[in-house]
Amino acid sequence: xxxxxxxxxxxxxxxxRPQFQxxxxxxxxxxxxxxxxxxxxxxxxIDGTFYRVMPDPQFPPFIENDPWFNGDGxxxxxxxxxxxxxxxxxxxxxxxxxxxxxxxxxxxxxYRNKFTDAVEFKIRTTANTNVVHFNGKLxxxxxxxxxxxxxxxxxxxxxxxxxxxxxxxxxxxAHPKFDPDTGEMICFGYEARGDGTPDVCYYRVAPDGTFxxxxxxxxxxxxxxxxxxxxxxxxxxxxxPQVCDLERMRRGGEHWEWSxxxxxYIGILPRVGGRPEDVRWFRHPNCFPGHSSNAYEDEAGRIxxxxxxxxxxxxxxxxDKDGNAPSPETLHSQLTRIxxxxxxxxxxxxxxxxxxxxxxxxxxxxxxxxxxxxxKYRHSFFDMMDPSLGTNFPAIxxxxxxxxxxxxxxxxxxxxxxxxxxxxxxxxxxVQEPVFIPRKGSGEEGDGYLxxxxxxxxxxxxxxxxxxxxxxxxxVAKILLPVRLRAGLHGNxxxxxxxxx
Length: 501
Ligand SMILES: C/C=C/c1ccc(O)c(OC)c1
Ligand SMILES: [Fe+2]
What we know:
Number of helices: 4
Cofactor: Fe(2+)
Structural class: mainly beta
Bound molecules: 2-methoxy-4-[(1E)-prop-1-en-1-yl]phenol, fe (ii) ion
CATH architecture: 6 Propeller
Organism: Coniochaeta ligniaria NRRL 30616
Number of strands: 33
CATH class: Mainly Beta
Radius of gyration: 22 Å
Protein name: Putative lignostilbene dioxygenase
Number of domains: 1
CATH superfamily: TolB, C-terminal domain
Strand content: 35-45%
Distance between the termini: 46 Å
InterPro entries: Carotenoid_Oase
Helix content: under 10%
Strand order of the largest sheet: 1-5-4-3-33
Family: Belongs to the carotenoid oxygenase family.
């Protein structure tokens, strides 16, 4: 648009919608807090930083019913050392963030629809979905663009990360995988040649940032590929049946539409040395693949892929073509094992042959001991929603806000014994995604701590709850924050020993 074009009116406050109300009221806070209050005690062997990101719109949107996923990325860094905790909060200085701050108003339009923007952006990402530590930098990630690099200590934004020009794709997944033995970062981008393109770009990056391999694939449909999985020899691409249509976008519509007719496709590609024609697209009846827990190969060479699987459209704010979407309370995601013979002639995956529910609770945000990523593993930690645990829903309903699924507890599932242990943080609390912290000196899988951000709807403030995985149901430390941090997506624990000096 030219500079004389009138901008759409910019509201001065956030709309009266669940995703902007109660606990979800945007905070806009950046902070440095040198000492946080601790109830209980932080074990002396914990020394590192928990980084996580949340969407937190800097300005009220000028579009209708902006989803939670469109807020500006704001990074929290919780530093735990010598039994103490400190905290820093910074927005990622994306092009969008900087230009909106200069203009003192929202300029970006709808989620991933450039045709609705008030100005033209080179890069319109919000960098709001994950934050990982790689090659001495933090990478703030959203799947619609390259990463933004940040300083791990100061959280200053360094700039758009194109890996010295090596990045072949317009996009970069929010869920790169790290090989615990080699430090290699395994990635992909979808819509890798632009909005609505079926092109998927697979790439592997050495720990020093050198690109090792790129493979261009074409997916059977331009669908969302949010998380993925890697084994010793294979990469697994689960397609969410949310599909993109550039024409709809041009008309000012949504980037995504739920497609009940589209199967749940799973692409399988050799991890190393695959050619574009080597990708094989397996099919399963329509459903919604959520986050991965882990994946590995069994003795027979089959891929064992554990993930959250829901029957219904979890992204209920992007309905089907007739406007149909489930109500959020009816969503139920289960930790599910899909077993695939990568060499099978038969591309149809069936409930009887290939699918098994491992844990039937309503769960999401699975985390493992990352030293066992891509390998046979035994322990999965996750968020769970079990209304029978005693959440006081009538009390918190007026301040919950909404626009996304809620979880009221943390769980540890032992795949070997089939047992689930549960931590319930309290009747006026909800949990965010946990991180696993290995115990110093212990190589035993799952031996360590679980750390999660907790929303306290009685205090309307945030807390970190720290659990010892050997005594999972009790809290070791509650660390109180002087701020309210709205719902976030993903984060990671970075041990002080792994930070390059
Ligand atoms: C479960 C979260 C999935 C997700 C997928 C696409 C996005 O753009 C996003 O933004 C925060 C989150
Ligand atoms: Fe995710």
